[in-house]
Design goal:
The chain is of the alpha+beta class. Helix content is 39%, strand content 24%. The strands form two sheets. It has a seven-stranded mixed β-sheet with strand order 7-9-6-10-8-11-12, sandwiched between helices. It has a five-stranded mixed β-sheet with strand order 1-2-5-3-4, covered by helices on one side. The structure holds adenosine-5'-diphosphate and magnesium ion (MG).
Length: 335
């Protein structure tokens, strides 16, 4: 059987149940943004790891070494943010092709260190090898959170409001611009920046984790079309998304008009936004949104509602049922 038949998530579903059965008590394993291990008292250890492979996740000609160093750490910090945790330590493993020079690597480490210092994360180890093929970067991050203030993907209930913490589709549009050539104006440069310099939403994640009304949370790495399905699977629910409510930035709106792109498709399926996706009890939804806006000076965007599992993921526009042309990202499936 070809891997493309089951896809990235089909593969994970295929092997993970056996490993989940073997877990010691108090440990949360495969299936969320981070694993959770008991630590001391009410403190919990969070662990996450993410790999970036040249040609699959980035093109060396389209991102500076400094941005790539920063991004390698940022995507992991985003998973800590998704649980409501605080990151503390990182491990970095590199498979380096022979054509990469020391100056490039110096810049890579400078970028990584910049973000590590800002977020008080210590690089504690890793591994370095030669790669006969592409540049391979793997980062693992440890973090901590208090029991009872960790948000899983599994707590969403029908009726909950679905929120996102930032505009969607900018990063996907930035990638499209890079694949087609170079940014042609300030809007396009801003979109490329969103793609190459994602900001992990650690403060937002910690704040949302402190709200009892938040029932589920994850970070948006593959686009809400894919990521909402992860919440649906873990929470055994469905979701209704209002395409007209997806937050679309000025640069994306204007660029989509100029280039003839469907901005809402990019917002739903573009991926690598690294904002947070949260389900919130409906009776507290307005209060949580107001509190978020007060705390961060920008809105929490309501994009839909959690529904019963039998409904699956449904999209609405102008009040009627509609479909997306693109699907969210899966490494082994296309279209
Ligand atoms: P994220 O995008 O938050 O990093 P993914 O959607 O990539 O999470 O992965 C889903 C879950 O499957 C996560 O809990 C992740 O740790 C786990 N996972 C992915 N690949 C593997 C693997 N090769 N071995 C074990 N667990 C994996
Ligand atoms: Mg994640």
């Amino acid at each position: 059987m070809k891997l493309s038949r089951i896809g990235e998530f089909g593969l994970i579903r295929r092997f993970s149940p056996r490993f989940l059965r073997d877990l010691p008590p108090g440990v949360t394993g495969i299936g969320d943004d981070c694993a959770i291990l008991p630590w001391s008292g009410r403190r919990r250890l969070l662990v996450t790891t993410d790999m970036l492979v040249e040609g699959a996740h980035f093109l060396r000609a389209k991102i500076s070494a400094r941005d790539l160093g920063r991004k390698s750490l940022a995507v992991n910090l985003s998973d800590i943010a998704a649980m409501g945790g605080r990151p503390s330590a990182a491990f970095l493993s590199l498979g380096i092709p022979v054509d990469i020079g020391v100056a490039w690597l110096d810049a890579f480490f400078a970028g990584l260190r910049e973000l590590a210092r800002r977020e008080r994360v210590s690089l504690l180890g890793g591994d370095t090898t030669r790669s006969p093929g592409p540049l391979v970067i793997n980062v693992a991050v440890l973090g901590e959170a208090m029991a009872g203030r960790i948000k899983l993907r599994s707590g969403a209930k029908p009726g909950d409001a679905i929120f996102v913490t930032g505009s969607l589709g900018d990063s996907g549009a930035g990638l499209r611009i890079l694949l087609a050539g170079h940014p042609r104006n300030r809007d396009e440069s801003a979109l490329v920046r969103s793609h190459n310099r994602p900001r992990p939403q650690l403060a937002e994640g910690a704040w949302l984790a402190g709200r009892a009304a938040v029932t589920a949370m994850m970070d948006i790495s593959d686009g809400i079309d894919s990521d909402l399905r992860r919440i649906m699977e873990r929470s055994r629910c469905g979701a209704a998304v209002d395409l007209d409510a997806l937050p679309i930035s000025g640069p994306l709106r204007r660029t989509a008009l100029r280039r003839g792109w469907e901005a809402r498709e990019l917002a739903a399926a573009g991926g690598e936004d690294y904002s947070l996706l949260a389900a919130v009890r409906s009776d507290r939804a307005a209060a949580v949104a107001r509190g978020f806006a007060r705390e961060f000076g920008r809105p929490l965007f309501r994009i839909g509602t959690i529904t019963a599992a039998r409904n699956g993921l449904r999209y609405f526009s102008g009040g009627s049922l509609t479909e997306l042309e693109r699907r969210g990202f899966d490494h082994f499936k296309r279209g």
